[in-house]
Design a protein that fits this description.
Strand order of the largest sheet: 1-2-5-4-3
Number of domains: 1
CATH superfamily: Beta Polymerase, domain 2
Oligomer: single chain
CATH class: Alpha Beta
Number of strands: 5
CATH topology: Beta Polymerase, domain 2
Distance between the termini: 21 Å
Strand content: 15-25%
Number of helices: 4
Order of helices and strands: HEEHEEEHH
Amino acid sequence: MEFVAASEHALKIAKIAAQAAYDKKAENIVLLDVSEHLVITDIFLIASADNERQVGAIVDAIEAALDEIDVDPIRREGNREGRWVLLDYFDIVVHVQQDEERSLYDLERLWSDCPHIPVELV
């Protein structure tokens, strides 16, 4: 297992967000520890969706799950297009992308030197 430098708080909210995404049928959910490379956040959560409606449902589920523990996004971008929505929670940044955008921008490749964080989703 790779060393993870992300804070415990970031890990906690990333796992809650990942489970919420999984519950709404997000695919290929990846958590990347970017804390050693960025000062603005600890974790990128990247998830795929088949269409605009699913992107919206996943984003809504993540926001609702994190709202339950009083964690609100400081920024939300990409709402209108529904192809790539970014939720910035300071400690984590969530990227929910349609498959085409995920392939095109390939965030995992851009951040390939960052450790993957294992997460069990049920």
